[in-house]
Amino acid sequence: MPRFLWSLAVLLALLVAPAQASERVALVIGNGNYANAGVLANPANDARAVASALTDLGFDVALGRDLDRTAMEGMLRDFLRKASDAKVALLFYAGHGLQVDGRNYLVPVDAKVETASDLAFATIELDKILGSLEDPGRATIVILDACRDNPLSRSIAARSRSAVGSGLAAYSTLGTGTLIAFATAPGKVALDGTGSNSPFTTGLVKHLRTPGLEVRAMLTRVRADVMAATGNKQLPWDNSSLMGEVYLASPPKGGTPAPAPITAAPVPQLSPPPVAAVPPAVAALPPAPQRAPAGDGFIFPDSHQRLLGVAELRRLSPDQLRIARNEIFARRGRFFRDPALSAYFSRFSWYRPTAWDVRTNAIEDANIKLIQSMER
Known about the structure:
The chain is of the alpha/beta class. 37% of the residues lie in helices and 13% in strands. The longest helix has 20 residues, at 2-21.
């Protein structure tokens, strides 16, 4: 009887172990050796580095490099099957990607695309992957280092009437429980890098294993690193409909995130400093912080719920007035076209850019107008 019970315990352990491992699944793809597009040096290295980090974090990882369309579809099917029973599903793709008529496509290494009609037969439509992964009961994370300069986009633009844009298109809405991260801002081109990994993957691998760091805070640190590495030329972007906090590494002890500071490039000068001496009233108010913990960094943290006064605004320098006005939009998720403003607000974990046109309430509108009148 004891031997029987021992054998039964071993059998149960073998059956339970795969189910526990599949709670966190990942598909990592790096395509660089293209037959009909520009060859990319780093995607295979990027995929290998990300797969190694995710394996260390306990993910059940499938790694594919330089996949043609058939192989890429096969790995995606397997991933979607595993994801159906998982609590966290993560897809990382490095390689060529393109946007046509507002839709995003991932490009296998054998893709030959000359017109928009070729897309359905030669590429993988990202929207279909996102639709298949939509599940409110699971956290789905899609990370794309796929915004590089793509000759296939130019070929389609020259031969069809379709709207072909640079980089990848933004998503205004996502399925519940989904986070999507891009190596750079919508419509922008990311750098492949001069080292063994792209600037985005370098920052991602650096922070993936950090304990106690929620995934959105982790991506904020990646954004700061990429901006620093590229001289503020490349701004990673993400959009999220996650329903709770997701920790890829171990969760924080005692429920408190690790208080590690963010190291970023110096913030660009937003406007020339005033020539006149600073009056004593201004000296009493500290300047906009160069570095602040998550959730901080506001000049007026309550400007969305109370009317500001002329007296308190007079104490601010021109740079501070500009920050005070734009932090109202930043709180609402404005995506700034000005690189200086993007660099400034990207240092704070609360900043989640989603769109240029954001809604503000009546109090915020009044505060914006008052600040603008003080800036003139």
